[in-house]
Amino acid sequence: MSRAPGRAGGAGTATAWALPLGVLLATLAAGFAFGLWASAWWALLAIGFVCVVLLAQELESRLALRWRGSFQRGLALGFPLSLLVIWELLAGAGILNPRWFPPPSQIAVALWELTVTFDRFNRSSLLGRPWLVPQVAAEQGWTGVQGLVRESHVWATLSRVLGGFLIGALPGVLIGMVMGLNRTVRMMLDATMSAIYVLPKIAIFPILMLVFPNPFGEGPKVAVVAISAFFLVAISTMAGVQGIDKVYLEAGRNFGASRWQMFRHVILPGALPIVFSGLRLALGTALIVIVAVEFVRADRGVGFLIYYYWQVLVTPRMYAALVVVMALGVGLTALLQWVERRVMPWRRG
Amino acid sequence: MSAKIVARSAEKRFQTRAGWMTALRDFDLEVAEGEFLCLVGPSGCGKSTFLRILAGLDHATAGEVRIVPGPDPRQPLANVVFQEYAVFPWKTVLHNVAFGLEMRGMGRREREAAARRWIDKVALTRFSDYYPAQLSGGMKQRVSIARALANDPQVLLMDEPLGALDAQTRAVLQEELLQLWEETRKTVLYVTHSIDEAVFLGDRVVVMTAHPGTVKTVIEVDLPRPRDLSVMATPAFAALTGAVWDALRDEVRRAMAEQA
Predict the structure, then answer these.
(1) Which member of A255, A269, A344 has the closest CB to residue B103?
(2) Is B205 left (phi over 0), alpha (psi -120 to 50) or beta?
(3) Is there a contact between B86 and A346 if contact means CB atoms under 8 Å apart?
(4) Sign of the CA dihedral A86, A92, A95, A98?
(5) By the 8 A CB rule, do B157 and B189 touch?
(6) Which of A249, A255, A258, A268 to substitute to test the interface with B, most B CBs within 10 Å?
(7) What percent of chain A clears pLDDT 70, i.e. is strictly above it?
(8) What is the ipTM of this complex?
(9) For residue B147, which residues of chain A lie inside 8 Å, CB to CB?
(10) What pLDDT, on the 0 to 100 scale, is given for residue A3?
(11) How far is A285 from chain B (nearest CA, A)?
(12) What is the pLDDT of residue B1?
């Protein structure tokens, strides 16, 4: 039973506060008092979550309308933050095993250590120690800087993702356009493409290692990302072209657009929204694929870091590497959205 | 005046899954140069099909449908104001209105100046850099009308252009449209569902039969021009809409019976 946040206040009275708050406190107390956390943590979590939701809704319905926007944004930010705090407390109290779930403070420290230290064993670092660039450039010149770039895990992952994404997405858009425009090509390729589309691309990584002269180099890694991106982008571009409302094509024809003009002024912009949703999908998939590949076969890259610190059981650093993957995902998505707003200004408002 | 649009024994057949369907049969019509002609008929009577053939988006399967070309071969024959506006969401008002001229290869400065003149005429001056998503339905349709007129076609084809608008916006746009027409005096073929609209706008109203579509009656509208909305309150207007409705009633019944 949830209350609509827009409902006028007054009806709730004290029980709306007291009931969920009481249940929440009782749940927590019972959890600690009878040692229920170990056996029934999922039930306690569910009850606690429902109570928190009810309390938040009650609070919102009592706020003035102009504060509700800030309140909702506060929820979006405050909820994960409080989860982190709870995690920290639970790990500190020994309820969560800190070996598997190290508290966020430890993860933050590990992230800082990863950033500033150079791993002598792997001859690698997280970012490539950019603060050394002026000194190294002065002493060893360009090759020294290149050495710094090569030791960076983030750069390794980023270059594979971006390189593979571009190499796959550009021909994907092209082929997708052709498939959308030409029925014969579509009939010839559609079934094949759909068949390959469902294949998890990581499964063809061994083939790529056979194909490339250096199976352990960058070639197969970039290629597997490119192939993943290609099929996603090609299929959504085709759908985008086919989904253009016929009336726009007819308007183009009626105003005498040539083939090229039709493509440039009607088909390309008409398909763009779906093309970009394909690009977003492809970018996410590219990140998944590259992390998986780096688990298997790499001595650089964020996926390698995760796997490496799992093997040596330094879990805070493993989590730190996960945070880096998340940051990469957020950053790359934001970059793509920026491009999207640039290319499709009409979708802004 | 000479004929601008000529249709003689025009026929249009479609192949559907259920077999051949005849949309138009024995369709004869002449529209004079500078005439405002309204086409009414029950749904599915082929009136939009006729308009599409004139627009070059479709072909007659038999007979003759053509626009008699004017002296200037560069002037486009016919442009359409579509029912669903069909203004490009990815172009600003200015670039939408300049679209036809751009397709014809007119230089940027020239075509944008021409587009701005038409944007002024449809009272969208303030909105020339807006995208269609930021405009109301009535404003979008003004863009669509300006886009067609800016291209300066010999014939203006309008396919239920105001059908999707609310009654008040519709009335305002009907008046604006008449003003624009008084200025340009283009040949207009206007397809509509609304009898009031047809009588208010047209020099003649052509009533079509239920499918296969053919001309049932032609009603001369001798209301004085320039007209404004007050003409709708006159007995003469009521008599004309009554006459159109008398011709149309049986056809609508027949169309409904066939669809049921």
Answers:
(1) A255
(2) beta
(3) no
(4) positive
(5) yes
(6) A255
(7) 95
(8) 0.90
(9) 255
(10) 47
(11) 29
(12) 61
Q: Structural domains in chain A? A: 13-92 (no CATH), 148-347 (1.10.3720.10)
Distance CA A20, CA A98 (A): 31
- Overall average pLDDT of the B47-62 stretch: 89
Q: B56: which chain A residues are within 8 Å (Cβ-Cβ)?
A: 253-254
The pLDDT tens digits for B104-163 are 999 999 999 999 999 998 999 999 999 999 999 889 999 999 999 999 999 999 999 998
Nearest CA in chain B to A244: B88
The CATH classification of domain B1-31+41-77+153-231+253-260, taken from the options 3.40.50.10090, 3.90.1300.10, 3.40.50.880, 3.40.50.300: 3.40.50.300
Residues whose CB is less than 8 angstroms from the CB of residue B216 and which lie 6 or more positions away in sequence, other chains included: B41, B207, B208, B209, B247, B251
Mutate to test the interface with B, among A275, A344, A346 (most CBs of B within 10 A): A346
The answer to whether the Cβ–Cβ distance between A247 and B90 falls below 8 Å is no
Q: At what angle do helices A218-242 and A183-197 cross, to 10 degrees?
A: 130
Write out residues in chain A with pLDDT < 70, as ranges: 1-14, 37, 349
Q: Where are the domains of chain B?
A: 1-31+41-77+153-231+253-260, 91-152
Which chain A residue has the Cα nearest residue B91? A346
The C-alpha of B93 sits at a distance from chain A's nearest C-alpha, in angstroms, of 11
Contact A349 B133 (CB under 8 A): yes
Average pLDDT (B41-65) is 88
pLDDT at A39: 77
pLDDT tops 70 at residue B235: yes
User: Which among A256, A257, A349 has CB closest to B134?
Assistant: A349
Query: Residue B213's CB: how many other CB atoms inside 10 A?
Result: 27
Q: What is the pLDDT of residue A250?
A: 93
Query: Residue A6 has what pLDDT?
Result: 46
Residue A49's pLDDT is what? Answer: 87
Instruction: Answer yes or no: do A255 and B100 touch at CB < 8 A.
Output: yes
Half-sphere exposure of A293 (CA within 13 A, CB side): 36
Phi, psi of B67 (to 5 degrees): -105, 125
